[in-house]
């Protein structure tokens, strides 16, 4: 393959994945939602970034499909905890009342507690 050439497979659909590490603070307790036959744990993280002399806060939704881990996390108090989440990132898009919305979502593959008392 030459530089600049894109490898296409599966009926000309491009394949790719953005895998990321997110370090942030849980802004609420996790929620458990029913998604078909499976349970989905949803967690929201605030990520603070320094920009010049200021700061910007981004909010990231974290989804977990790992049932055993989800059961354990639902027993913990996660609000205010500093966490490192690792997993693939995608953008969810939807439309409501003629307006288009987007939000970043990470599907959790790995979770690390960053507060010393939780380690």
Question: What descriptive keywords fit this protein?
Answer:
single chain; 119 residues; mainly beta; OB fold (Dihydrolipoamide Acetyltransferase, E2P); five-stranded mixed beta barrel; two-stranded antiparallel sheet; 1 helix; 9 strands; 7% helix; globular
Q: Which CATH top level class fits?
A: Mainly Beta
Tell me the span between the first and last alpha carbons: 45 Å
Q: Indicate the radius of gyration in whole angstroms.
A: 17 Å
Q: pLDDT under 50 segments (min length 5)? A: 1-8
Quick one: overall form? globular
Total number of strands: 9
Largest sheet: 5 strands, mixed, barrel
Q: Could you say what the CATH architecture is?
A: Beta Barrel
The run of helices and strands is EEEEEEHEEE
- Binned strand content: over 45%
Mean pLDDT: 87
- Within CATH, the superfamily carries the name Nucleic acid-binding proteins
Give the fraction of residues assigned to helices. under 10%
Please count the helical segments.
1
* Secondary structure category: mainly beta
**What would the CATH topology be?**
OB fold (Dihydrolipoamide Acetyltransferase, E2P)
Query: How many domains would you count in the coordinates?
Result: 1
Adjacency order of strands in the biggest sheet: 3-5-6-8-7
Overview of the structural elements:
It is a single chain. By secondary structure, this protein is mainly beta. The chain has one domain (18-118): Nucleic acid-binding proteins (OB fold (Dihydrolipoamide Acetyltransferase, E2P)). The chain is built from 1 helix and 9 strands. The strands form 2 sheets. Strands 3-5-6-8-7 form a 5-stranded mixed beta barrel. The chain is globular and about 45 Å long. 11% of the residues are buried. Mean pLDDT is 87; it is low at 1-8.
